[in-house]
Amino acid sequence: AEKAPSQLGLAGANFAEPAENSSSLCSSLGSKTASAELAKIAGEPLQITSSSQMERLEPPPGLVSQEKISSRLMDVDGQSVLRVEWRIDNFKGKLRDCVGRTLVSPCFEVGRLQGCRLMVIPNLKGLKTSGLSMRLQRLMHEARIEGGPVSGALNFKVVTDLGQQLVIRFTLFVGLDVQGPLERDFNKQIIHGADFTGDWLCQLQGGALTVGIDVL
Question: How many CB atoms lie within 10 A of CB 112?
Fold first, then answer.
């Protein structure tokens, strides 16, 4: 009898042909550019890095380290799900400091998968800045960040090399906006994600934006 495909989830490591690859966006994060003007995996028990451990993990050079990331197990429709949430405080301020660049979370672990990260890629397209001075461009970016709309993509990065197919089934969320479930092979491509077209400023709570992933 033909075996049904299986995925890498909390119950164990299984390998299957992935669904079609999604396009992913990846960029390294440089220095600040704006001024003051502007449960198991592979038969092993699920291990979740504690918040204190996460805070001690240093990101690669050039990446912005955000402190507030948390992991917890949840029961969703009778299924055990690992939820990782990344709270980005002062979200507008982070965007001003990193216009055109990617915001990258601290590392977190899912079982044997180490060095996992969430990546926020804001979209400020539509601004007509051609021919303008750098100062005017900054002011236009700041006006968009302050008043919106601001949308973009959220990516999930897995760098662990298990030497075989690594299919993970997951959902991504920005505030209350959810994309998925998605099923991707991270052995072929280490970054996968989804576009979120809604205005992220509408998802802010106390100036913070919470994004995350549910590993199914």
Answer: 15
Spatial separation of the C-alpha atoms in residues 107 and 124, rounded to whole Å: 26
- Residue 67 confidence (pLDDT): 61
Cα dihedral: 83, 89, 90, 93 (round 10): -70
Residue 174: strand pairing partners? 177, 211
SS (H, E, C) 64-113: CCCCCEEEEEEEECCEEEEEEEEEECCHHHHHHHCCCCCEECCCEEECCE
Q: How far apart are CA 145 and CA 79, in angstroms?
A: 38
Give 15-65 pLDDT, tens digit per residue: 333 344 333 333 333 333 333 332 333 333 334 343 434 333 444 433 454
Look at residue 208 in the predicted model and tell me its pLDDT.
95
Token duo for residue 74: 């949840």
Instruction: Tell me the CA end-to-end span of the chain in Å, nearest whole number.
Output: 26
Average pLDDT of the chain to the nearest whole number: 74
